[in-house]
Amino acid sequence: MDKRVMLITGGSRGIGAATARLAAARGYAVAVNYVHNRQAADNLIASIRADGGKAIAVQADVAVESDVVRMFVEVDQHLGTLTALVNNAGILERQARVDELDAARLARIFATNVTGCFICAREAVRRMSTRHGGSGGVIVNLSSIAARLGAPAEYVDYAASKGAVDTMTIGLAKEVAAEGVRVNGVRPGVIYTEIHASGGEPGRVDRVKDAVPMKRGGEAEEVAQAILWLLSDEASYVTGTFVDVTGGR
Predict the structure, then answer these.
(1) DSSP type of residue 134
(2) CATH topology for 5-245?
(3) Could you state, in order of their start, the residue ranges of all structural domains in the chain?
(4) pLDDT tens-digit readout, 72-110
(5) From the candidates 28, 34, 155, 158, which is the catalytic residue?
(6) For a Cys staple, 55 with which of 48, 109, 131, 187, CB 3.0–4.6 Å?
(7) Is 28 a catalytic residue?
């Protein structure tokens, strides 16, 4: 088996952590990116290593271009040539209507969720694309069901940022399809992760789950399964598309 090296941005908790664990169990060497929570990242790395996997933690803020460049260099040096990127890092802020937003909040959301996704994809393509001397690879961008639903009265800015990620996914996929790189997106629905607390409502999943046809929230591991499928050879003819992990919404 060829060596598989994965970088997961925002990987210390939630969907990112679940993806890291599953990827390591399937033979990937995993780089887990984090911004502030070093303890969570270190605990995850220790857990993966205890199970026989290979993993490192890399601190970087994806909203800062120089951080992203340094992060990719660290992965090159410690794990080798990147074959998989999971653009998972994303933020939201407290629930608010559009008429309550300011430009500073929008700048923060888009810097991480959109610009960070682009710059990470740029660095990955420079390593994976046959145009740049690479031997191929796969990128999975984490979007959200909010991109389709709009998240009114809660997170229209977050939803709009994920709509941008969807468009970027389609365009980049077509751009690099002939260069050995596949690019797809996963749109989670309401998933039990800590991101809801940063929006001011830790119990949001339980409040809205009855609007989901399956009448429950999703688990991070269920999203990770979809991500790993898109990264795998089982999805070898799949690019520029999306898997909605939403319980039917």
Answers:
(1) -
(2) Rossmann fold (3.40.50)
(3) 5-245
(4) 999 999 999 999 999 999 999 999 999 999 999 999 999
(5) 158
(6) 48
(7) no
